[in-house]
Specification:
The structure holds two protein chains of two kinds.
Chain A lengths: L3 E2 L4 E5 L4 E7 L4 E9 L6 E7 L4 E3 L3 E6 L4 E6 L8 E9 L5 E3 L3 E6 L1
Parallel strand pairs in A: 2-11
Antiparallel strand pairs in A: 1-3, 3-8, 4-5, 4-9, 6-7, 7-8, 9-10, 9-11
Chain B lengths: L4 E3 L2 E4 L5 E6 L6 E7 L6 E7 L2 E5 L6 E5 L5 E5 L8 E8 L8 E2 L3 E5 L1
Parallel strand pairs in B: 2-11
Antiparallel strand pairs in B: 1-3, 3-8, 4-5, 4-9, 5-6, 7-8, 9-10, 9-11
Classes of the chains: A mainly beta, B mainly beta.
Chain lengths: 112, 113
């Protein structure tokens, strides 16, 4: 069915370490994926995106990896900072309907 | 800031009442989508509006309805409120239907008592 799920609901990392947040998706027709960051009391904020014809994309301190074979998406955050503490969502877009499906989210806690 | 504004920020209603939530999209964006986010969950797609017409709907009953105006701002209306309608309602705008990036507002927190 339609679902985007996350393996780890809460991730705690030491400040300065790298973080990896994982996401599984189920829709083979998804052609585009986004990672969003949501802080308390705010709407989701765009972090990075990737199209289905790519397997890796890098931004500033963030990297998204896409493995279509196993329908897996990951977000890597380098040198994690206290300001990175938030809930992270992956979202997939269906290529036919343009409908986005969001996962439940992973809470990232950065320990000082 | 994304340039997407929503009002009100918080709202308390009682079961059976009706509510209207409002959204102003980012300048130049003609497509608006509405999402419901229950506590501890990811956003769930309600529907999308493109140039004043509904263009796609999620698994929500007809008592969830919407409008988009010529200036591309939008309203979400919910009739006969139920307790389970308590959630954060998010509006997102994009340049067009096929444009990938959604820019979200901060949402309206609706509590149904």
């Amino acid at each position: 069915g339609e679902s985007v799920g996350l393996h780890l609901p809460t991730l705690s990392v030491q400040e300065g370490d790298n973080s990896i947040i994982n996401c599984a998706y189920s829709n083979s027709a998804s052609d585009y994926f986004i990672w969003y960051k949501q802080e308390s009391g705010k709407g989701p904020q765009f972090i990075i995106d990737i199209r289905s014809n790519m397997d890796k994309r890098q931004g500033q301190r963030v990297t998204v990896l896409l493995n279509k074979t196993v329908k897996h998406l990951s977000l890597q955050i380098a040198a994690t900072q206290p300001g990175d503490s938030a809930v992270y969502f992956c979202a997939e877009r269906d290529s036919g309907t343009y409908k986005y499906i969001f996962g439940t989210g992973t809470r990232l806690k950065v320990l000082a | 800031e994304t340039g997407v504004t929503q009002s009100p920020t918080h709202l308390i209603k009682t079961r059976g009442q009706q509510v209207t939530l409002r959204c102003s999209s980012q300048s130049g964006h003609n497509t608006v989508s509405w999402y419901q986010q229950a506590l501890g969950q990811g956003p769930q797609f309600i529907f999308q509006y493109y140039r004043e017409e509904e263009n796609g709907r999620g698994n929500f009953p007809p008592r969830f309805s919407g409008l988009q105006f010529p200036n591309y701002s939008s309203e979400l209306n919910v009739n006969a409120l139920e307790l389970d309608d308590s959630a954060l309602y998010l509006c997102a705008s994009s340049l067009g239907v096929g444009d990938e990036k959604l820019f979200f507002g901060s949402g309206t927190q609706l509590s149904v008592l």
